[in-house]
Design brief:
Helix content is 32%, strand content 25%. It has helices at residues 49-56, 79-84, 102-106, 121-134, 150-163, 180-195, 207-213, 236-244, 305-312, 336-341, 351-355, 362-367, 382-396, 412-424, 442-457, 469-475, 498-505; strands spanning 11-20, 23-33, 38-42, 64-69, 72-73, 87-90, 168-172, 199-203, 216-221, 224-230, 262-272, 280-290, 294-298, 320-326, 329-330, 344-347, 375-376, 379-380, 430-434, 461-465, 478-483, 486-492. Strand 14 (320-326) and strand 15 form a beta hairpin. The structure holds adenosine-5'-triphosphate and magnesium ion.
Length: 510
């Protein structure tokens, strides 16, 4: 445990355990959280990080052990009560109400009223605009949040938390969907809060980030304390060793794949902004992909990278134009079914909205896009479904605490693995991956890289969008860069460097 000279912890976690129907997610956890410090909590997918923070912030009310806030025992009835007492959490899974506006979401449960007790919309709108500009977010506070990109939604979640007067601010993977530029902004805000004495708990799988922002760390492994210390006195490798309890061997190495035949060619792809018909989300983008090739797409948030994948997958045919050739033959993709029959699969960025049915189990979710495979005479066979589920759980090393568990009860990273499994099960020829390792721990990342590489080696064509440049550089044979809806760079793996990619990603419209 970290001892900080004569500083009293604001939050003290003592011998906390938590079980879900007899399965322990946390066992005798002890942790001190200090004011004016950033404490990182790290651990593999399913280690118990989110569960612990949900206990502290009133989401889980039933647990063993004791938590004190400024030496007073707490057992918040709900997150609202926790927030009123200064313990605020930004959840890993977005918690916004989709059809409400940004303002309404920011002020949900903390509405401003005027002297007549009526909602003061103008004031709330103004305050929201202020905080959005602080986060350099150029969105209208009246926009319904379901029209925002995942990354923007994540920033709105952050904005909402910043509004509350917090003593302890918990951020559960706040940067999983935002790009480097926003991360910097967030860090400057964290530093400001730190000088004001706020205790910040920061959960992230991006180890490099932790060295930049955290003062100390606490490691969880299989629901138990597995080490703690000061960031300054620790190395990257030490942290990983504590997290996984072993050295990570068999790190990723890309196989060189021989030139195959063209599998898909995209010419002059355009995607009109449904909100503003004179504006383009994707403008005249062309590229091709060969069998066994991995094409990386990078660009800042909002550059059009996700929309390129969505356009190819037939999600918004009304707004999309351009020509798509599959194995040299022109193909009309008018909807998702056309895309699936053409052998295309998309692993989306936002698993909660597009990827999973949260109250179904892992096997059912895995076979969702692949019902014919698991059916006999038109009826779904649950044994085939289970088999398929198990096959992919093994392939991806997905951790489930019990059979038949609903996917919403899996840890964030394990949910992501189920989304990947669901689309791999369709055995696609062309696989579109949008941020495939979002929320995935360092060890499992290597597993996923190896899997992607193996699929390519077997002849699958893969297009991968990622905000993590090292990931793009490690996996891609070729890389394209988008900026403000246009293609601004094309590189082979050999030519590309982080600097060159960043430079192309920052090209502005003339
Ligand atoms: N509501 C629930 N019911 C049953 N099991 C649950 C529930 N919530 C979490 N668990 C289980 O508790 C364990 C810890 O999950 P938790 O979400 O805390 O992990 P995590 O460390 O946050 O992982 P990640 O990095 O993937 O987000 C997992 O095995 C998970 O499946
Ligand atoms: Mg989590």
């Amino acid at each position: 445990m970290v001892k900080t000279n004569n500083l009293q912890p604001v939050l003290d976690i003592r011998n906390v355990s938590k079980d879900f129907s007899g399965v322990y997610a946390l066992k005798n956890i002890n942790m001190h959280i200090f004011p004016g410090k950033v404490t990182a909590i790290i651990g593999e997918n399913g280690a118990g990080k989110s569960t612990l923070m949900k206990i502290v912030s009133g989401v889980h009310t039933d647990f063993e052990g004791e938590v004190t806030l400024n030496n007073e025992k707490i057992n918040f009835k709900n997150p609202k009560q926790a927030a009123e007492n200064g313990v605020v959490i930004i959840h890993q899974e977005l918690n916004l109400i989709p059809h409400l506006s940004v303002t309404e979401n920011v002020f949900l449960g903390q509405e401003i009223t005027n002297k007549f007790g009526l909602l003061d919309y103008r004031k709330m709108y103004k305050k929201t605009a202020e905080i959005l500009s602080k986060l350099k977010l150029e969105i209208n506070p009246s926009t319904p949040v379901n029209q925002l990109r995942v990354g923007q939604q994540q920033l709105v979640e952050i904005a909402r938390a910043l509004f509350m007067d917090s003593k302890v601010l918990i951020m559960d993977e706040p940067t999983s969907a935002i790009s480097d530029h926003e991360v910097e902004l967030l860090f400057s805000i964290i530093k400001e809060l730190r000088t004001k004495g706020v205790a910040i708990v920061y959960i992230s799988h991006k180890i490099n980030e932790l060295f930049e922002i955290a003062d100390s760390f606490e490691v969880l492994r299989d629901g138990k304390n597995a080490g703690s210390g000061e960031m300054k006195k620790t190395s990257h490798d030490d942290l990983i060793q504590m997290m996984v309890g072993r050295d990570i061997t068999g790190s990723f190495k890309k196989e060189q794949i021989t030139d195959g035949k063209e599998i898909i060619r995209v010419e002059n792809l355009c995607f009109i902004n449904p909100e503003n018909k004179t504006d383009f989300l994707v403008k005249d983008v062309s590229f091709n992909l060969k069998k066994g090739e991995i094409l990386g797409i990078c660009g800042l948030m909002g550059s059009g990278r996700t929309e390129v994948l969505e356009a190819i997958f037939g999600l918004f045919p009304k707004y999309v134009s351009g020509d798509i050739y599959i194995k040299g033959k022109k193909q009309k993709i008018k909807n998702v079914n056309d895309a699936i029959s053409a052998g295309i699969a998309l692993v989306p960025e936002d698993r909660k909205l597009q990827g999973l049915i949260l109250n179904m189990d892992v096997a059912k979710n895995t076979s969702l896009a692949n019902l014919s495979e698991v059916s006999n005479y038109g009826f779904i066979s649950s044994s085939k479904e289970k088999e398929l589920g198990l096959e992919f759980r093994k392939k991806l090393n997905t951790k489930v605490p019990s059979e038949n568990i609903e996917v919403q009860k899996l840890s964030g990273g394990n949910q992501q693995k189920v989304v990947i499994a669901k689309w791999l099960a369709t055995n696609p020829k062309i696989l579109l991956l949008d941020e495939p390792t979002r929320g995935i721990d360092v060890g499992a990342k290597t597993e996923i890289y190896n899997l992607i590489n193996k699929l390519a080696a077997q002849g699958m064509g893969i297009i991968m969008v990622s905000s993590e440049l090292p990931e793009i550089l490690a996996l891609s044979d070729n890389i394209i860069v988008l900026s403000e809806s246009k293609l601004t760079g094309r590189f082979t793996n050999k030519e590309a460097t982080e600097e060159k990619l960043m430079k192309a990603a920052l090209v502005e419209k003339e």
